[in-house]
């Protein structure tokens, strides 16, 4: 056992399987008391069962660590609040949350139904909000804490998972808002975009060239939760096996200014040559793959 998180209390959503499970196990092995949240659903979010979270909590206890399971659905305000309340009731404080609960409902945009859109947004984006909301109120009082959102490289866009991509883009903006809003209270917020072998990545439509294990992701998350990363906030890191990468902050690429009012005609003359467009890396990839580029 290491001591990266000695004395800390960490809550992890989606901790019954995959990346969340690895984060919970490594956090406990590094000295944290862990709230293991998992609603125990199928990949599409259906058929909840509580057993997966409980079995991870038992695994942690069997290895000599401290853990408690919470089977609530974090896409509800009550579920997010309960994850935080259990941390306080069991361990008296909360030093970090990691929002790794996730589901997939893949469909092309032109065929996507409300039943495919809403639960995906509710699990990833609202499910990060509910936990961040409840945790940040505690951390603001404590004047310390770390919020970790789980995004994806597909926040850049996705051919057949517009719901998932939109939710993951939302997670990035939520994390940056948390970093800004909580900075003066000593609370940090960062996002991790993992690529790891789980039941979810087994269902990704494109072949993943760079991929690792959930334990690689857990190592980065545990570092970000630790005091060694106290100065890091508002960042997005990819971890894919041996690779760690930093995503750029959104920024304006080029600007131009009008003299007088804009009209569509003036913009048509001005924009292409002066401001132009910023090529989408994923679109270029698609064009190369499909042979149009
Ligand atoms: N695996 C990858 O390569 C990859 C890539 C990019 C992003 N991610 C993200 O990482 C996170 C973890 O994914 P994973 O690959 O470990 O998937 P996974 O399916 O193995 O685990 C997700 C867990 O979340 C739980 N869950 C789902 N809805 C929930 C809810 N409402 N409340 C509580 N728990 C709920 C599930 O029961 C499941 O155990 C997700 O946010 C996913 O989008 C994963």
From TrEMBL:
It holds the Pfam family adh_short_C2. Keywords: Oxidoreductase. InterPro entries: KR_dom, NAD(P)-bd_dom_sf, Peroxisomal_Beta-Oxidation, SDR_fam. One of its GO terms (molecular function) is oxidoreductase activity. Residues 8-198 form the Ketoreductase domain. Belongs to the short-chain dehydrogenases/reductases (SDR) family. This is 3-hydroxyacyl-CoA dehydrogenase. It comes from Streptomyces inusitatus.
